[in-house]
Amino acid sequence: AILMPMGYRSPVDVHGMISNARSCQNDPRVDDFRKLVVGSWLNLPIERAQGEMFNIGMIFRRDYIAHPRAGSGRASRKISNEDEVLRALKQLRDPSGVWQPNVITLSLEQLKFYDQVKIITTLNTLIGVHGAALSYALWMQPDSDLIEIASGNYRGRFHFEFYSIWAGVHYTKLDAKGGEKLTLDVNSLKQAVEATITRHSTNKN
Asked: Would you give the distance in Å from CA 11 to the centre of its chain?
């Protein structure tokens, strides 16, 4: 299995994270898997369209309709200052003038799998709170960026950093305050996203 071997020997198992942290590296088979799913199965472009838009996807966690055996369907670790975060992202500019930042808000639980992947594959940068949705970094084109927001015990979990390394995606972790409701420092977020824009601008030139 490329993505999630079973048992405590899994590279993303909590018990093995520290021991695996030094050995995790890019695996070309992950990109082969991405191309198979995105290109062959879903018939979507495996590369972003060339253009001036710099697509930034921001995942917001929402309550969902749960199966009766799956609990309440209430999402945890929601961002409490969503409006402030969105305003900050929409104010972003590329100093070099190469890119026009375009912010896309994502509520993935409201979309079918095909539509989820269709949007994710267009992103230069994906941002979200620690949770399963960040595994969608595996569908992103190599050299894209994942920014993970983490708090509490989740700061010490490296699942999505490992996913990013395997997939050739650049990874950044940002700290947030709180538990069930998180407060994100918008200045730190802006700096992190601006760094991704600058790097992409340099590569494009």
From this structure: 19
